[in-house]
Amino acid sequence: MEDLCIKLRSDLEHYFSMPFEVSSSLVDGEVHYKCSPSNEGSMFFDINVYIHNHIRLIIEMNPQKHGGYILNEMASAREDKIKRFVMYKEMLEDKGAKIKFYVNGSDVFDREWPSIWRSFMCKIVLVPIPDVDNAEKRFAILSEWMKYSFDFIFSLLTITDINEESLVSIKTEGSPSEIRSIRYERNPINRQLCLYRKGYCCEVCGMNFYDVYGDIGYHYIEVHHTMPVSLMKPDYVFDVDRDLVPLCSNCHAMAHRRNPPYSVEELKEIIKNKIKK
């Protein structure tokens, strides 16, 4: 159990570029994994993950003892963050998950967004799950859904995947636009939602890496910002549908042959004119 905890923590930290705490316990003969972003004073939230009867993955999320700050930030989330939160829920449901998210004891999706959050409880159930008869398979499904779970909560928060040391360095050496660039380009939530909604075919030429390369190209494509991040002001309201598109490596490179980049429509026209000639 301890080895898997270390591996899960390392995987989460690599994915989010922030420190995590992961521990395990035995409950009724089943191993429960408890994880949270590292913090002093129990001010964030915990995620408890376990596999029940070898076929059901159960994830439970709750604020930590002193998680009032997190609750307040969720309650005051901007409209674009609430939209992203709902989109992420839809994505997880499309992956087969059943989701319950209660705020102050009521389903948050059946009411207006509450202005005061005294508590929240989220439960995600995935059944059936792939066969997990060995440690490698257990690690794969636990890691994948732990990341989904943290992203689901992070979608409402201002937490980014930049650790403090990196951010200090950027603030010292870089410009505000460089900070925004890293925040938007490395945000796994925005990337996942873009690909969930728009798929893995290039928006310009239609290429799908899986069709060309087989298994090694499965679910691979690059994501391009239609609005250059250098032009995004600090109060810019980011919209996944408007601001991100999937592009193959060639079209992505060609888009950036000009500053500001070529639009999807311009690149399509360039290809169309080239074919005509």
From TrEMBL:
What keywords are annotated for this sequence in UniProt? Endonuclease, Hydrolase, Nuclease
Q: Which CDD domains match?
A: HNHc
Which SMART domains does the entry link to? HNHc
**Residue span, HNH nuclease domain:** 189-253
Q: Which residues cross the membrane?
A: none
InterPro entries, per database record: HNH, HNH_nuc
What protein name applies here? Answer: HNH endonuclease
